[in-house]
Amino acid sequence: MRYNRQAAADVRVSILTNKKPLNRDVNNDTKVNVKDALVYKKDIDFLILSTGTSNMQVWGTRGDPTGTESPDPRIIGFNAESNVMDFQIADIRTSSLGLIGGQTQFREPIFTGPVTHRINLSRTEARRNENWVPTAFVFAKEYLKDHPNAKVGIVVHGLGALCMPEWISEAGLDYTSVHGRPTVSTARAYKDVEAIMKVALQRTKKGKADVMIWGCTTADRYLQNQVEIQKQVILQFRNRDWVDDNAPMLFTHATGNSTASAANEPVNVRCQQVADETPRVACIDSEGLTVQTGPPYPFEPYHYDTAAVRQLGKMYYQAWKNIDS
């Protein structure tokens, strides 16, 4: 039998990386890039997937990166920038906690393959430099208080001003947009989350997300069949390979203590109905959480301020604990 130097090298790679040897044909070719095979897979004990609209990023908040929101090496976040595509120590000053605007792209294989998906992100900010504080980061810090030896991973992807049908994998659902215009869904948000998770899980030994945290949105006040759509979103995400079949799904009301409260009330009532009728789903009451009303914020009633985000992250964590209590 002829000695195959490359195949032998593949076996050594497989031993070092805990991967199966690459399958090569008689011409010694393979579709798997060796550089990808050598990627170090991060240890994660508990993986949080956070998606939703701008309040899940969270738009406009100003955290304290050297104090309350200082990095913790036990918390790592997936940086989807095209030149990174890896988990890093979560830091509100970087894209490790979600991209804010601009465009990112995904390749298969990760480093050298062709571009397989482009993601256009919300708003116009091309980089994260505003110290925005995703609720998932607060959730992770709370989790570590009870599990101090754990390693927590976070994947954040938020898209502003979208309605829930955009998280349905099949496009073509009719709904009314946040601007009051008839709209047909494009499955934009679902496709983005799927692409991000596909790559993120190649970079960790963790196979699935343990919990998903969401937000309801003022856009959903135009969605008369919200209950059916929200249940469909929950079911399809639980049926995906990258989310645990029994993963808790945590939603929150659209902003409650604001001039938008009256318009949002039907959204919140429907959200609670979904939680009451669906196993392992919670909908958190946002009443009393403050919104951005003055410096350093512009006045607008649709986004939580920093104090509210910090409280909301704790409320999400408590809701997760209550599901299994």
Can you describe this structure?
- This protein has 325 residues and is an alpha/beta fold.
- The chain folds into two domains: 5-37, no CATH class; 46-323, Rossmann fold.
- The chain has seven helices and eleven strands.
- It has helices at residues 5-17, 34-37, 135-146, 188-200, 226-238, 261-277, 306-323, and strands at residues 46-52, 75-79, 86-89, 103-107, 115-120, 152-158, 174-176, 182-184, 211-213, 249-252, 281-284.
- The protein has a seven-stranded mixed sheet, with helices on both faces. The chain has a two-stranded antiparallel ribbon with strand order 4-5. A two-stranded antiparallel sheet has the order 7-8.
- A hairpin with a 7-residue loop joins strand 4 and strand 5 (115-120).
- Helix 5 (226-238) crosses helix 6 (261-277).
- It is globular.
- The N and C termini lie far apart (61 Å).
